[in-house]
Amino acid sequence: MTTFERRKQLLSLLGDHPGIKVTELASRLDVSQGTIRNDLRALEETGNLTRVRGGAVLRESHQYTSPTFAARANQNTRAKDWIARRAADTIREGDSILLDASSTVFSMVPYLQELDRLTIITNGIEIGLALARNPSHNVILLGGMIHPDGTSVVGHLGEKILADLHIKTAFVSCSGFSVQTGLTEVDIQEVQLKQHMIRSAERVVALIDSSKFGRVDLTSFARTRDISQIFTDHHIESSYIEELRQTCTALTVCGQNTVSTFAACQEEDQHYTIGFANQSEQLPFAIDVRRGLERAAKDVGNIDLILADNRLDGEIALQVADRLIAEGVDLVIEYQVDEKMGSLLMDKLHQAGIPVIAVDIPIVGATFFGVDNYRAGHMAGVALGNWIANQWKGRFDRLLILEEPRVGALPASRLLGQLDGLQEILGEIAPSRRIYLDSGNTSEQSRSETIGALEALPDEHLIAAVTINDDAAVGVLAAARELGRETDLVIVGQGADRVARSEIRHPDSRLIGSTAYWPERYGEKLIPLAIKILQGEAVPPAEHIDHEFINADNIGIFYPE
Q1: Alpha carbon of 205 to those of 232, 265, 346, 358: distances in Å?
Q2: Where are the alpha helices (DSSP H) in 427-540?
Q3: How far apart, in whole angstroms, are the C-alpha atoms of residue 475 and residue 38?
Q4: What's the burial of 208, exposed, middle or buried (CB within 10 Å: 0-12/13-18/19+)?
Q5: Which residues pair with residue 273 across a beta bridge?
Q6: DSSP 152
Q7: What is the reported pLDDT for 265?
Q8: How many CB atoms within 10 Å of residue 553?
Q9: Which residue from 3, 156, 294, 525 has the least number of CB within 10 angstroms?
Q10: SS (HEC) of 263-308
Q11: Rg of the chain over CA atoms, in angstroms?
Q12: What is the Cα–Cα distance from 204 to 226, expressed in whole angstroms?
């Protein structure tokens, strides 16, 4: 089919199956995952859909039943989307959550469609209708009287139901907020129900766009002390930030590419502001690193965390560094891909007197944290060699080496480790049998490069692949599937991120395993390391994580489903 026909069918599938993943879309349309991602990117640019982790949802898939609600939903849409995206990112599969009937909380819906097995309690008719389209969700619509505007259910029946429920997190909004009066509303019936919502929840998270700060409406339904965390947008006035920092309410200020989280309480411990420049918010591994860092900072309690996205671009990393300097951070955790930019980044931050921890990609003058590259690679190489020895009787035609020239010598040593481990099992591999490909650090470029290599080897059917990371490994696999040559290849990855783990669980997958880097655990080591540096304690020049090669035999032990 043509590109137009494929994208039209893709939109139809998204409409019929909210939350459908890229892998399933690729299978149904008989194209590669890289092609689907390119289609999703193009359709997002034309306003047809919103990309979410693992897939996309239609932007216009929900038809509002209430004109009143539609009018509210279309106000401050950019700010609401920034807030909703970050708030939804705190929810995990299987959680029980409560959502009020506000348009700001409704903005979370696209980001919840990608999760499975949520139990959702809501008084919002629009929210209930939208989320019930994912059959894995359990959606409970509170009973009671339908509000005159047709957007919500209110009254004593809903209050009685809430009295018997134990909810992990309630997500609510308001018509006005001030530190002194808390969350306020104009509708008495809504206020009464929301008070019961808050009593039934372990945590209360408030989504408040900046236009509502300083506004006090008819009556309050929650004091500031009742709120665990507030999400707002970066147009909030600094005076409100300072007011909230004197309370015990965590505050997250959301922009399009930068997020600042201020810790809940400032008591006896010295308070620090740490900037985290993430490699890319499009890579599952980097997202998991960021989430772990957020959890660790929250657990410590005296860390304000400012998050930014380097977007796999050295020039953008320099711009991010300027923003973090302007924010007055005490330390920067730098995670970026271009080794050549390291000296420029370090010069900027050194001139500002800001210490640096470099994640995975070393920077001269910075404390290194991350992968023990050669050892991690060697484990995968040995595993690959053993598989070839057992399954292909020790024979193979070519070795694809998916590298990333920008990362420099130290991360590249994970490829040397894979090559050495493979040769320990199978003997020396002549240079003429090695094919080096530029992964670009993405599955899309890896797929494209691998397609070219495989098309040049039509008669070779025993091909092994070692990779710089799991994105490259997934790209190699996608190329093999697209060309109908999946059984011609065997692949090992680096990182064991959630996309690779999902693939490893599949029976007979040609991605036979990946060395685990535990990105979800980075934060619990990075935050203590940062605090030691800030307190003037001696730290080693490099701190490495432990590794384990994850395959189909042991994945259930390390990552139980």
Answers
A1: 11, 16, 37, 32
A2: 443-455, 470-482, 498-504, 522-534
A3: 13
A4: buried
A5: 304
A6: B
A7: 63
A8: 8
A9: 3
A10: CCCCCCCCCEEEEEEECCCCCHHHHHHHHHHHHHHHHHCCEEEEEE
A11: 25
A12: 7
Contact criterion met (CB below 8 Å) for 254 and 261: no
Six-digit token string for 392: 């292909």
Q: What integer is the mean pLDDT of 391-416?
A: 92
pLDDT at 61 over 60: no
- Cross-strand pairs, 544: 370
CB 67 within 8 A of CB 32: no
Structural domains in the chain, CATH included, are 3-58 (1.10.10.10), 67-256 (3.40.50.1360), 269-371+523-540 (3.40.50.2300), 373-516 (3.40.50.2300)
305 within 8 A of 331, measured Cβ to Cβ: no
- As to burial, measured by CB atoms within 10 angstroms (0-12 exposed, 13-18 middle, 19+ buried), residue 459 is exposed
If you ran DSSP here, which 8-state letter would residue 18 be given?
T
How far out from the chain centre does Cα 394 lie? 39
Describe the crossing of helices 33-45 and 470-482 by its angle, rounded to 10 degrees. 100
Residue type, 25: L
Report angle CA 439, 443, 444 to the nearest 5 degrees.
90
- The two structure tokens encoding residue 185: 């509303």
Assess contact for 392 and 549: CB atoms under 8 A: no
Helix (H) or strand (E) holding 420: helix 409-426
Per DSSP bridges, beta strands 303-309 and 331-334 are unpaired
Residue given tokens 């009020």 in the structure block? 100
* DSSP result, 92-126: -TT-EEEE-S-HHHHTTHHHHTTS-S-EEEESBHH
**Residue 286, burial from CB neighbour count under 10 angstroms (0-12, 13-18, 19+):** buried
Residues 351-360: what's their mean pLDDT?
A: 96
Where does 214-283 have alpha helices with state H? 238-245
More confident position, 301 or 66:
301
